[in-house]
Amino acid sequence: MCQLDNPMEKANGMLKRTVATLAAGLTLGAGTAGLFAQSTPAIVSGPVGPSPYNVIRYWHKPFSEPGFAFGGNSGVFAESPDRIFIAQRGETRLPDPLPASFAGFAGSIGVNVLSATDRRVMKKNFLYTLDADGKVRERWPQWDHLFADAPGPGPHRIRISPYDPQHRVWVVDESYNVIYVFSNDGSKLIKTLGEKGVEGADGTHFGKPQDVAFLPDGRVLVADGLDNHRVMILDRDLKYIGEFGGHGKGPGQFNGVHAIGIGPQGRVFVLDRSGGRINVFRTTTDPAKFDFVDAFTGFSLPLDIIVNDDCIWVTDLSPLRFNQLDFKGNHLYTWMVPRELPDGYIEVHTISVDSKGNLYGGDNQYGRTQKFVPKPDVDPKLLIREPWHLK
């Protein structure tokens, strides 16, 4: 259960001190400043306390050729504790000579891989997997050509449906406005949705798509996206049957659809990124229609979501934190994410949890993924579990 029985003592005092410290000490890079310009001030409410996890320091092991480091880690999906998929926004060209402080990722020497576009190299290492120790396990160079020389930052999310016995791998590419479906071993490109390099707002094109989510009956929801501000509904044959949302501030509208989470009893949670809220919908008897239920406000720039059986977890940008909410929008717990290295983040852009309860978070600006393991004897109510799915 996620519901907290008792709020943490002195939560309000901790909140004020934490937010004041972050506000006073945060110096933003250009990439972060751009995101902040799109966001509204967050309202942090409910109990605030320490992280329930320990960080495995320097878990993500470098494997690029000399002179290069990871690009933005925009997509992470833990298929198992020993096979973690990464969707990466190319690589980052390192300075020469390389500063002695380099610790295996560009952020360790002050390079923001999102804003340093002159150092972004969109040629290879877009898709790969890591083992339990953070070492590269597989690389998929056969598909690098699909993402190479992108006009924007590149792939955005990587997902696998919990209902797919073949465990096909979905990669959402916002820059080329396409979604690819690969075989689990990467040997085949099974399906391409959208038209590469062509943006559109009809039933077969996208406008900077951001995410996909899977319903128990086989339907697929597409977060489309930063330009079209809608959620597209595809049937089990991946044919367009409808959409909901639209650009605006009204009930069920969006200012950028960034991520989607599916919950029990037909609930669908959709992150309205620049709108600073979570829009909640519910399925109906009509497969092409979803009803708007509620909006959970008070976020700055919500980034990613995991839905458990009785609560949701959301990462938010300012202040950077993990938020736990119940299905009515009540804030149950918050833990702040430090910016300071070696264990900090600029942006927890994507999150995933494996079957052992380990948490993974991709940083789109420092340029790496970190692994979190539950602290010994931690309250299990504070841990993020694998995403809900109908069993």
Task: Summarize, please.
This protein is mainly beta. The chain has one domain (11-382): TolB, C-terminal domain (Neuraminidase, 6 Propeller).
Q: How would you characterize the overall build of this protein?
A:
It is a single chain. The protein is mostly beta strands. It is built from three helices and 26 strands. Helices cover 7% and strands 38% of the residues. It has a five-stranded mixed sheet with strand order 1-23-22-21-20. Strands 3, 4, 5, 6 and 7 form a five-stranded antiparallel sheet that branches. The longest helix is centred in the N-terminal third of the chain and has 15 residues, at 11-25. The two termini are 17 Å apart. Residues 3-28 have low confidence and may be disordered.
Can you tag this structure with a few keywords?
five-stranded mixed sheet; 391 residues; Neuraminidase; disordered N terminus; mainly beta; five-stranded antiparallel sheet
